[in-house]
Design brief:
This protein has 235 residues and is of the alpha/beta class. The protein has seven helices and eight strands; from the N terminus they run E-H-E-H-E-H-E-H-E-E-H-H-H-E-E. Strands 3-2-1-4-5-6-7-8 form an eight-stranded mixed sheet, sandwiched between helices. Zinc ion (ZN) binds next to helix 5.
């Protein structure tokens, strides 16, 4: 565990509970990526930030919070947006990635860079009262494109942003993502590889786990033919 390098992309609703859970669980090397400063609207949900942090890059404020409480954790800070020019390089320098972003485009970018560099990652998403998480082991289990195929259009994305996210749901999903990172770090089987967890907090809380298969035609390389050629009839 001591040498496991975990990259958290997005230090907001999902990334904050994820980094807190990881630090408490004994993670030692965390890297944070987020281009945004702390804003007043973040304080209620993203509980590690204080009024004095407003205007400070989130990665700086989060690193300071970690350093004060978990001095053994080494924190690398990247106050930039993950984009096509830096994604592969940043991801290749880590052993596991937590997708804590809120943009579908960023999620596909993380997916593709993790597939290209063979880096396992855990996807997380929250819309309204519903959260989802899924771990991807490149070339072994279904990737985000196996499940969703294409990036949703801008109207759909805007709809998700306006729906907002609920703190406790994001807290639960971020903590689950951290749990997957810790299992990977300890060389244990991740619970959500090849499976999507859905947490629905509207009404009585409900957790559902659905198996997902790799999709034939997806470029990620996880799909395998069910029947080998040798099983084909004829000579
Ligand atoms: Zn795929």
């Amino acid at each position: 565990m001591a040498t496991e390098r975990i990259l958290i992309v997005g230090v907001g609703g999902l990334g904050v509970p994820a980094l807190w859970t990881l630090a408490r669980a004994g993670a030692r090397q965390l890297s944070l990526v987020d281009p945004d400063p702390v804003e007043l609207s973040n304080l209620a949900r993203q509980v590690i930030y204080r009024t004095a942090d407003i205007g400070t890059p989130k990665v700086e404020a989060a690193a300071r919070w970690l350093n004060e409480r978990f001095p053994d954790v080494s924190v690398e800070r990247h106050a930039v947006a993950l984009d096509a020019s830096n994604a592969a390089r940043l991801i290749a320098a880590h052993d596991f990635v937590i997708d804590a972003t809120d943009s579908p485009a960023a999620k596909f970018l993380i997916n593709d860079a993790c597939i290209a560099t063979r880096t396992p990652f855990v996807y997380g998403g929250v819309v309204g009262m519903t959260g989802q998480a899924m771990t991807v082991i490149p070339t072994e289990t279904a990737c985000i494109r196996c499940v969703f195929e294409t990036v949703p259009d801008e109207d759909e994305i805007q709809g998700c942003r306006e729906a907002g996210i609920v703190g406790p749901v994001a807290g639960a999903i971020g903590a689950m993502q951290a749990g997957e990172a810790m299992r990977a770090a300890r060389a244990q089987t991740t619970l959500l590889s090849g499976k999507i967890l859905t947490y629905d907090a509207s009404g009585p809380s409900r957790v559902r786990i659905t198996a997902v298969s790799p999709r034939q035609g997806c470029d990620c390389g996880a799909w395998r033919p069910t029947h080998r050629e040798s099983h084909a009839p004829g000579k």
